[in-house]
What we know:
Blueprint: H1 3-6, E1 9-10, E2 16-20, E3 23-28, E4 31-36, E5 41-46, E6 49-54, H2 59-80, E7 83-90, E8 95-99, E9 102-106, E10 113-115, E11 121-127, E12 130-135, H3 138-151, E13 161-164
Antiparallel strand pairs: 1-6, 2-3, 3-4, 5-6, 7-12, 7-13, 8-9, 9-10, 11-12
Amino acid sequence: MSRIGRLPVVIPGGVDVKVDGSTVTVKGPKGQLARTFHPNVRIAREDGKITVNPGDETNATRALHGLTRTLIANMVAGVTTGFAKDLEISGTGYRAILQGKKLQLALGFSHPIEIDPPAGVSFTVETPQKLKVSGIDKEAVGEVAAKIRRLREPDPYKAKGVKYAGEYIRRKAGKAGKVGAAKT
Length: 184
């Protein structure tokens, strides 16, 4: 049995959880999330906690046991506190601008890139070089942040591009140039 899957998910006050077979709906102060899980995993609500148990002992079900519990815990955390990913932009002329709800990025291309936020995700531009992707669905927030980073990944030579806040970019040395003796 999974060590993570064994732990119950505590339901905080102000959060309503409905379990209907393999569908779980979580409603809280920040919004509502619903997800359908694999039918081999049994989900039960009892005494202000959600417990997840495997339906059988096959390897596939055992793998889904801990995953299901973590996804439910992320749903509960999302509707109470939400999730956010911070991104940093570095490079001459690279910047982010918020136009309404759209994010406009200047990343050294011949044209600016506009990104519409998907449902449940919002952008915040703190400075032209720092932006935040936030929302209640952890999976959607991470996916949008990864797509923005993929537009201009950090260069290992000059560290120009879009990176996660706190991400370490391993730098490479450039060309050695004419360091040695002259060729004859």
